[in-house]
Write a structure and sequence with these properties.
By secondary structure, the chain is mainly beta. Helices cover 0% and strands 56% of the residues. The chain contains no helices and 19 strands. The strands form five sheets. A five-stranded mixed beta sheet has the order 3-5-7-6-4, with no helix packed on it. A four-stranded antiparallel beta sheet has the order 8-9-10-11, with no helix packed on it. A four-stranded antiparallel beta sheet has the order 12-13-14-15, with no helix packed on it. It starts with a strand and ends with a strand.
């Protein structure tokens, strides 16, 4: 049970054992998320996203969200910060921390799914709304749930993948060739056919 201003508040049953602190703001659709430092007390309406686990770290991530009505609020997520991404087409938001992947409904800000101990360090959204993740060796795209990621094969085995950003439908990134670390490459992922190519 959680307490806000002395009043006891139970989290939604469907989110148990996750801990999620509701508040009274009539929230609209999330359109943007930004990693920030811990806000001052009272600076934003806040909501806590946590999950009961003996493996939890003591780190937290704060995300400032912008709604489509231009109101702002903050989410506090268990784990050190990595990335946040919003898919307007899917109406979903994903927060990636060192401890968890939090997949949220952008309309309600409720948790749809949590995955623990993620290996990913990078996250972005394709023009068609697909969430794309990367660890150091692989790029994967989210299917209908976090346990069903599809690995996107490249022309070489990759290491030290780093996303650079989008040019139209193409995600640009750098990597090293695995076991040949002197070969530094610029790559592109075309989200129209999900093909990875070496940039000339």
């Amino acid at each position: 049970m959680l307490r806000i201003n002395g009043s006891a508040i139970m989290p939604p049953l469907r989110q148990a054992p996750n801990r999620c602190v509701p508040f009274s703001v009539d929230r609209k659709m999330i359109v943007k998320g930004e990693i920030i430092n811990q806000p001052y007390s009272g600076q934003f309406d806040e909501r806590i996203y946590d999950n009961a686990s003996p493996w939890n770290s003591q780190s937290w991530t704060w995300i400032k969200f912008l709604n489509d009505d231009l109101t702002e609020w903050a989410g506090q997520f268990r784990g050190a910060p990595r990335e946040v991404a919003v898919s307007d087409k899917l109406q979903q938001t994903i927060v990636l921390t060192s401890d968890y992947i939090f997949r949220l409904d952008s309309k309600t800000a409720d948790v749809l799914e949590i995955e623990s101990q993620p290996q990913y360090h990078s996250l972005t959204v394709a023009p068609d709304g697909t969430f794309i993740f990367a660890d150091y060796y692989n790029i994967e795209r989210l299917q209908d749930e976090l346990k069903r990621m599809e690995t996107i094969k490249g022309p070489i085995e990759m290491d030290m993948i780093k996303f650079l950003g989008w040019t139209a439908d193409k995600l640009l990134f750098t990597c090293d060739e695995f076991t040949n670390w002197d070969r530094h490459l610029e790559m592109e992922l075309d989200s129209r056919d999900w093909a990875i190519k070496i940039r000339e």
